[in-house]
Amino acid sequence: MTFAQQSLVNRMRGATVEDSSLLKEGFPAVCKLNLINEVCEKLQRVYNRPALLHNGILSVLADWLEPVRSRVDKKKFLLPSLDLRTKILNILGSLQYGDNEDDDTTAPDMSRGRVNPNVTMLDLKSTHLGKRIMVLSKSDQETDDNKAKARILVQKWSRMMFSLNDRYAEADSGGGLKWRRHKVDLTVPDTLMSVPAADEVEKEAREERYARRMNFPAPQIMDFQHAPVSEVEIKGNKPNPLVQTRNRQLAHIKSLGRSRATVRSAAMSIEGSLSTLPTGPTI
Fold first, then answer.
1. Rounded distance between C-alpha atoms, residue 133 and residue 92, angstroms
2. Is 68 helix (H, G, I), strand (E, B) or coil?
3. Phi and psi dihedrals of 51, rounded to 5?
4. What backbone torsions phi and psi does residue 273 show, to the nearest 5 degrees?
5. Which of 134, 139, 128 is nearest to 150 (CA)?
6. Do the beta carbons of residue 101 and residue 107 sit within 8 Å?
7. What does the radius of gyration of the chain's CA atoms come to, in whole angstroms?
């Protein structure tokens, strides 16, 4: 474990304490945000992971994801910063998981330090990181993208816990999962055949009745590209008289709207004659 890696984990713990104090005083918590980029950069380098994992960086990341109590509503808890949650989920998704036979976490040798860069099941059990990721995968305050990333981590860690392999080739060849078709036994049981039959004809009829009562699923051949020919006979493409009548009515209504024109009314006097007009006839 180098001094730089140990110093980084200690500064992460200090940022957790400082942000907690800032929140109690009503100030924004920015210490973890100022340090998250450096943490992601260190964890992306494989040679830094054994020392960081041995010093408990996963436990510190679990503390960073811990929800905080709201100052307005004491019964409500709020998630940390969105930028902080997104970067932690991204870096956790990029890590390699799996137990190794040469892993030093089962029997640690403090003089030699840790060599395995993979995150083991013992590393996850020693922290509350699984609970924090489970909360993110179900929280209404979390985004859909982060929920999907959290669910992938939960599935991956669950397979580690129950020793399940997600690779079909290894599971099939390594003696794990065996995929085989179930064979249906159609033979008549001995209890049924023990009843004496009158002759061979009755015996065959009994076997046929027994086989007819059995129902078991069988694969069906489906061709979705087959277009069956319609059996409905079409005598001719005769127009529908109701449609023709409706079309004629609509055409008539449109023609009436186009033929109407605004006519300007002529100027008339009160008496109804043109004598009072300036240009009208005089008596």
1. 10
2. strand
3. -70, -40
4. -115, 170
5. 134
6. no
7. 42
Q: Are 1 and 7 in contact (CB under 8 A)?
A: no
Helix, strand, or coil here: 203?
helix
131: its two tokens:
């609970």
The whole-chain average pLDDT of the chain stands at 75
Q: Are 53 and 97 in contact (CB under 8 A)?
A: no
DSSP 126-137: TSSHHHHHHHHH
Indicate whether 257 pLDDT > 90: no
pLDDT digits (tens, 9 = 90+) for 125-158: 889 999 999 999 999 999 999 999 999 999 999 8
Q: Spell out the alpha helix ranges (H) of 26-143.
A: 31-44, 49-54, 57-64, 82-94, 121-125, 129-138
Name every residue whose Cβ is closer than 8 Å to that of residue 203 and which is 6 or more positions away in sequence: 193, 197
pLDDT digits (tens, 9 = 90+) for 190-229: 555 555 555 666 777 766 766 655 555 666 666 556 566 6
Number of neighbouring beta carbons within 10 Å of residue 22: 14
Tell if the pTM clears 0.70, that is, is over it. no
Asked whether the beta carbons of 51 and 1 are under 8 A apart, the reply is yes
The most distant pair of C-alpha atoms in the chain lies apart, rounded to whole Å, by 137
Q: Summarize the chain as % helix, strand, coil (round to 5).
A: 50, 0, 45
Helices 31-44 and 3-25 meet at what angle, rounded to 10?
150
Please state, in angstroms and rounded to a whole number, the distance separating the CA atoms of residues 283 and 281.
7
Distance between CA atoms of 9 and 3, rounded to whole angstroms? 10
Task: Find all residues with CB under 8 Å of 194, minimum gap 6, and list them.
Answer: none
87-132 pLDDT tens trace: 999 999 999 887 654 444 443 443 456 778 889 888 888 899 999 9
Q: What angle do CA 157, 162, 163 make, to 5 degrees?
A: 90
